[in-house]
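Lab notebook, page 48
Experiment: co-folding of the full assembly
Goal: obtain a model of how the components sit together before planning crosslinking
Operator: M.T.
Materials (sequences as entered):
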Amino acid sequence: MGLFGALEIAGSGMTVHRKWLDAISDNLANINTVRPTSGEAFRQRYIVAQAVDYGSGQGGVTVGAVLYGDPQGRLVYNPEHPLADEGGYVRLPTINLGDQMTQLIMAQRGYQAQTATIERAQTAYNAALQLGKSA
Amino acid sequence: MIPALSALTGASTIGPSSGIGQALGPVIPTSIDGQVGLAPAEKTALGGGGLSFGQILANQIAGVQNLQNVADLKATQAATGDLSDIHDYMIASSEAALATDLTVAVRNKALEAFTEIMRMQL
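Observation: model returned without errors.
Model output:
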């Protein structure tokens, strides 16, 4: 951690939240992706945040892992679909739209919180630079 | 280093209990003898054997140069479309600007102290 630790730590938080937004965007984009029952359904993405130990002199957060949802998905009866099997079923992902929208708000607010930290840190550093200027 | 400049290196020999007469004490004999260095006792008080002010400033400028290089690299990446995070560039440029301001402030303070001493009536 250098001279501007708060800025770098907030930056790592922004990166994690940006990746979370990317994952949600991917999940929402594929919410209606149909696959044949012979293959896997689109697997929902989960971003796992991993804290960087503050005692190590680093601080901040990284993406520890990207996990994937259920490959089984849910079977939907749609015999007119070109990808339907003999029984008339296709595979759709198990993504919950309401859940994704909630996570979208959380990711957005988290991202905004990091920008607030950066703004405050910049104000604080600038205030420190003004020390003794008036004397 | 002259005791008057010791505040710039983060250490001060002037204790809270010492008056102006005591604080000026070491200055007068050293200027008469033409010595710029500190007495051995003062060196240990300042954590002697440390870097001189010039070396500290040179190190700091090298650090600022590094931050500027990082900001330049991010700017190039932003222009070529290789930058994955917008905030990476904004943070790098903020850090470079703040570090430059800090270096300029330190330089101004040192120059201020120097001109103050040069103006001194002996």
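Interpretation: Chain A touches chain B at residues 2-4, 7-8, 10-11, 14-15, 18, 114-115, 118, 122, 125-126, 129, 132 (CB under 8 Å).
Next step: discuss with group before ordering constructs.
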